[in-house]
TrEMBL record:
It comes from Geothrix oryzae. Residues 107-176 form the FlgD/Vpr Ig-like domain. Required for flagellar hook formation. May act as a scaffolding protein. Transmembrane segments: none annotated. This is Basal-body rod modification protein FlgD. InterPro entries: FlgD, FlgD/Vpr_Ig-like, FLgD_Tudor.
């Protein structure tokens, strides 16, 4: 059923594109035919003829031809650039990247997340499961300004190991004056695959999908 639906959609899209292309070609050809016919049937030296108008018509013909050639060249360059960029992006497979975001991807009792503080702060991390229930509260104590790595052993408040998977994280950071301190969180992941879809590029890592635009850092 799914294949049939895709084929029908593709056929309808192809028909629409052919119709649009045919209409555009007819408009262009019609303009050229009318212009050429007019040039053939007028004498620029005859009475009542305006030489300036003749020059303008010839200029229009030349400009149209140049625009068509330019559009063809730009389309070709765009296709080549997109293919080259995709090939380069495929080289990210196996690389380690730092991605904008938050959360713990628990695996075999280990999970980490990066935290960057604008200034020194007292930090507490709250961990929630997929249903939103709090499974652990992790006081981090007083952390200095700059980058830190938050680690979790995958155990809940009673010390029971939790299953592997993705867990949501909430960070609370307050200064010694009790005011909130701004921070940024990120994840360090290894790229398993690169996907091209919806006119975008996405990276996959351990079942997680994220946009190439979210990548903050790439390492070997």
């Amino acid at each position: 059923m799914e294949t049939g639906m895709i084929s029908a959609t593709t056929a309808a899209t192809t028909t629409t594109n052919k119709t649009a292309t045919a209409k555009n070609a007819l408009d262009k050809d019609g303009f050229l035919k009318l212009l050429v016919a007019q040039l053939k049937n007028q004498d620029p030296t005859g009475a009542g003829q305006d030489p300036n108008q003749m020059v303008q018509q010839l200029t229009s013909f030349s400009s149209l031809e140049q625009s068509q050639q330019t559009n063809t060249l730009l389309t070709g360059l765009q296709t080549q650039t997109a293919g080259l960029f995709q090939a380069q992006t495929a080289g990210l497979v196996g690389k380690t990247v730092k991605v904008d975001g938050s959360g713990f991807n628990l695996k075999s009792g280990q999970a980490t997340m990066n935290l960057e503080l604008a200034s020194a702060a007292n930090v507490t991390v709250t961990v929630r499961d997929a249903t939103g229930n709090v499974v652990a509260t992790l006081p981090q104590g007083h952390l200095n300004r700059g980058a830190s790595t938050l680690a979790w052993d995958g155990k809940d408040a009673s010390g029971t190991p939790l299953p592997d998977g993705a867990y949501k994280v909430e960070v609370s950071a307050t200064g010694d004056d009790g005011k909130a301190v701004s921070f940024r969180t990120s994840l360090t992941l290894k790229v398993d695959a690169v996907t091209f879809k919806d006119n975008g590029i996405y990276l996959a890592s351990g079942g997680n999908i994220f946009s190439l635009a979210d990548v903050l850092e790439i390492t070997a």
